[in-house]
Amino acid sequence: MERTFAIIKPDAVAANQTGAILAMVQKAGFRIAGMKMKRMSQLEAETFYGVHSARPFFGSLVKFMTEGPVVVMVLEAEDAITKWRDTMGATNPANAAEGTIRKTFATSIERNCAHGSDAPETAAVEIPFFFAGTELL
After folding, report:
1. Domain map (residue ranges) of the chain
2. Strands in the chain per DSSP E
């Protein structure tokens, strides 16, 4: 079994889409090993998305991710990273496949309602950023 990190972003939480997204998570066959709702601080968002700090969208990304609560999760399944990225759909919802989370709920490339680790190395950093090992079941 592989683990991946996922976020239901502030746009989806504010639009009361959390339950529908969690239903899609379960329907896709993931086991939720950890989950909590929180509000990211400015420092947390800047650090978490630091890989994008030189990109022109960094400031607006940090502002977006701190505008309201998020749901952070650790998902477990065979090939969880690829499976979660497939379940989310393309970053740009206009390019996302029908039935994916982003096609169903996202409104733009930046307000795309979900995040997921893109590689095992990324998941290994992202999971402990939000979860202590004792919080995962």
Report:
1. 2-135
2. 2-8, 31-38, 70-77, 114-116
| Predicted pLDDT at 126 | 97
Pick the CATH number of 2-135 from 2.60.40.180, 1.10.3380.30, 3.30.70.141, 3.40.50.20: 3.30.70.141
Out of 3, 83, 102, 115, which one is annotated catalytic?
115
Are 33 and 80 spatial neighbours (Cβ–Cβ below 8 Å)? no
Which pTM does this prediction carry? 0.94
52 catalytically annotated: no
Tokens standing for residue 8: 């239901």
Q: Give the gyration radius of the chain's Cα atoms.
A: 14
Write out pLDDT tens, residues 67-123. Answer: 999 999 999 999 999 999 999 999 999 999 999 999 999 999 989 999 999 999 999
According to DSSP, the residues that pair with 72 across neighbouring strands are: 7, 36
